[in-house]
Amino acid sequence: MTPETKARQQIDKKLEQAGWAIQDLKDLNLGAALGVAVREYPTDTGPADYVLFVNREAAGVIEAKRDEAGENLTVAENQTARYANATLKWRVQTTPLPFLFEATSQIIRFTDGRDPAPRSREIFHFFRPEQLSEWLSQPETFRRRLNTWMPALDTRNLRACQIDAVTGLEESLARNKPRALIHMATGAGKTFTAITAVYRLLKFGGAKRILFLVDTRNLGRQAHQEFMAYTPPDDARKFTELYNVQRLSGSTVDPAAKVCISTIQRMYSILSGEPIDESAEDVSLFDVQQTEKQAKVVRYNPAIPVETFDVIIIDECHRSIYNLWKQVLDYFDAFLIGLTATPDKRTFGFFNENIVAEYTYEQSVADGVNVGYDVYEIETEITRKGAELKAREWVDRRDRQTRKKRWAETEEDIVYTGKELDKSVVNPNQIRKVIETMKTAVETQIFPSRKETPKTLIFAKTDSHADDIIQIVREVYGQGNAFCKKVTYRAEEDPDSVLSSFRNDYNPRIAVTVDMIATGTDVKPLEILLFMRDVRSRGYYEQMKGRGVRSLGFDDLKRVSNSADSAKTRFVLIDAVSVEKSLKTESRPLEKKPGVPLKDLLLGVAMGSRDDDTVLSLGNRLIRLAKQLDEKALARIEKHAGGMSVGELGKALIMALDPDKIVETALANAEAQGITRSEATLTEEELQVARAQRVAAACAPFDKPELRDEIENARREREQIIDHVNLDQLTFAGFSEQAEAQAQKVIQTFADYIARHKDEIAALSFFYQQPYQRRALTFEMIEELHDALSRPPLMLTTERLWSAYARVGTNLVKGTDARRQLTDLIALVRFAIGLDDELKPFREQVDKRFQEWIFRHNARRTTAFTPEQTEWLRLMKDHIASSCCITREDFDYAEFANKGGLQKVWQLFGKDLDEVMKEMNEELVA
């Protein structure tokens, strides 16, 4: 058999899988099926290897080549085009055949001759005849529609960065670029932007179906909610009223669905034919180490052919589209669009450096889309150095999973480092010291004006660590269960309902997580992130920080944090483990390193990895583990494994790959079907089916997350030492050097702005012209100045300026009034231009000047102000403190009107009222 004949056998097989009837010319019967592929069909330039007929009409040609020609397959395009333009024998062909294929047994390339500037592309498998029939019925191809049909973008309800992203993407699609990357900062509305593009591709581009690919169920759920909430600018109906949106939870794509939302794990499972447990969709693939041999397992699935989707949008594409999982993207003949806030080098490489929109975090802060952040550091002695427990010290030992304690004596000196905290050793005092320091810092330095704890997210190392933190948080804050909750995939309470409450309700004020809301989850009211775990991946760390960056308006923030006195202007990252300073890697390595962790082997099997390497590695690990565990641990695993021991689980995996057993299973399968087979006559396909059958049965127990957790917990030392002996000491608490430098920059920006615009803004002119000109400083002037300062790109709100001055010169910043008011901008300006030596809240300055003024006034008069007059003067003073001045019209406000208003104050002061108000406006504000 020649190499080309072998290639044609595989081409025939692939055509049959796609639903084509294969015929030789002598057996021609175009009515046998919708799609018929005729071998060696004669043309006026020679016989074509295959001519494809759809509905009895010639539609395309296939040029078959031996595998060795694969590296030069594009050379065959001229030959294919020649047949497509040739005259077919017995046919009247007025136009060239539109569908052109070049194929070996390994590679298929396809060109649609009706595209603008037709260009070949590699496809995973042949298209079904139904697809070619559908394309033939359309006046223009999808790529031509993208090139000519897309109307101008309706920019209503879109930010500038979103307009740039949709426009840039559509320009890329119009140029037929197969991959495009949208880099948008967290909080800038990536999903909203993507849905806008999806709507236009469906309505105007005529896309058949679009896949929205995520890497955790949580992100899929969130994306589905955004699709349901989206209302296009040109239609009053919701997206889901216009188009069917399916969130994939099984193995079947709804033919009526125009958008399909799926995890990459589930789609991989469908295409590889290996079932997965739902829990495998809760873990980002970024966190799972893979092996090189866990590859090339995606197979053609006629139920989900390669043409199922026209476009694939990959959310958080920096994480999960490499190695094993890339096969999902290779399978479909679709444009690939990546969404990410934190791309790395391989992300840029994967998308061919075609960055259609780039909107960085720094730009988003400048535009007011996101907020900046400060870093507050907490360092304790034990966090940094660890501690030592002496021999013969009585301590608690706690079972990691059951948390059952026993009181025991240490047999030898135990020295532990900071890195071992919350793993082999738990020091409750260390956790308590961090939480107490955070509480004090928030109440006195970070958000001193707040009456309730700002919404806070704590990143813990493990679920056990999270439980310890929760108990201590509730104790330190003196609060009940509702105040602090765990939000992890393994929490007993429904994590989605807790997350919803954390986002929208008063409680919980503090949430503790390990990984569930570390990335991609929208919690806008978050104002504090406490890191109690280190993070080594730069991209993952940026994603975790992104939980705090989202801006929030005053009304929405006040709804969950009632004492908030402004919109969300920043968040504070409290670093208790030096996460800001630790060495970060760019990304996970592309290839496996020796020794894949046991937890990754377990999860790999649950996700459908059935290669020999993974199965054998896990089997051998379990057999070794069986010899290391005590009877209690073995019994716990056996209980979760349905009565199988650890050793039996491992042996079953190894025996599943035994060649003799595979042959026995294949023969038994044949016999069950009534087929007589001997070992020598078994086909390779029958052996592969038998292998897959045996491996699936051996791997089935590991679908249960409880079993995987029990094995992983047993592998580690089951007991933790609880160190109540060593008390921790705080060694440093304060804003980081980076925060200091940022504060200096804010102050300098403020000073430069004042100097540059002193002649343009009335409020600045008022101060610069003192004492040569005295005139009333109105609240409108201050509002004008505040508006100019707080707009992008300056973003210099009163609170941000005050915090910056407090950070760099605490000895100059005085006063007890922690609530910032708009009129505090007066104090800031006076201090910045040198009129005041100390920065005090404007209200305190007004109080002091009021005391001095009333003393002078009383001293000049024969009769001092009466107590009732003085009470009204204090009310007027308070109004000036918040509004800069007092006028007759102001007595209509409630604080005056409730006490008699202008009529009452006129009775008390008579014709002296106007002079008194004039004096107060000049003396208390100037």
Low-confidence stretches: 587-594, 771-775
User: What is the distance, rounded to the nearest whole angstrom, between the alpha carbons of the first and last residues?
Assistant: 101 Å
Structural class: alpha/beta
How many strands, which pairing sense, and closed or not: the largest β-sheet? 7 strands, mixed
Task: Please bin the fraction of helical residues.
Answer: 40-55%
Q: How do the strands of the widest beta sheet line up side by side?
A: 1-2-3-4-5-6-7
Strand tally: 27
Radius of gyration: 36 Å
Cα shape: flat
Strand content: 5-15%
How would you describe this protein?
Strand 12 (311-314), helix 10 (326-331) and strand 13 form a beta-alpha-beta unit. The chain has 926 residues and is of the alpha/beta class. The radius of gyration is 36 Å and the shape is flat. It is 42% helix and 14% strand. The strands form five sheets. The chain has a seven-stranded mixed beta sheet, with helices on both faces. A seven-stranded parallel beta sheet has the order 10-11-9-12-13-8-14. Strands 22-23-21-24-25-15-27 form a seven-stranded mixed beta sheet, with helices on both faces. The model is unreliable at 587-594 and 771-775 (pLDDT under 50). It is built from 35 helices and 27 strands.
Please specify the SSE layout and strand pairing:
Elements: H1 3-17, E1 21-23, E2 35-41, E3 48-54, E4 57-64, H2 77-84, E5 99-103, E6 108-112, E7 121-123, H3 129-137, H4 142-148, H5 160-174, E8 179-184, H6 190-203, E9 210-214, H7 217-229, H8 239-242, E10 245-247, E11 259-263, H9 264-272, E12 311-314, H10 326-331, E13 335-340, H11 345-350, E14 355-359, H12 361-366, E15 372-380, H13 381-385, E16 387-389, E17 394-399, E18 405-409, E19 414-416, E20 425-426, H14 428-446, E21 456-459, H15 463-477, E22 484-486, H16 495-504, E23 510-513, E24 528-531, H17 538-545, H18 554-560, E25 570-575, H19 598-606, H20 612-628, H21 631-640, H22 646-656, H23 659-672, H24 684-699, H25 705-715, E26 719-722, E27 730-735, H26 737-756, H27 762-768, H28 779-790, H29 798-808, H30 824-832, H31 842-860, H32 867-883, H33 894-897, H34 901-909, H35 913-925
Parallel strand pairs: 1-2, 4-5, 8-13, 8-14, 9-11, 9-12, 10-11, 12-13, 15-25, 20-26, 21-23, 21-24, 22-23, 24-25
Antiparallel strand pairs: 2-3, 3-4, 5-6, 6-7, 15-27, 16-19, 17-18, 17-26
Helix pairs in contact: 4-5, 5-6, 14-15, 19-20, 20-22, 21-25, 22-24, 23-24, 26-29, 31-32, 31-35, 32-35
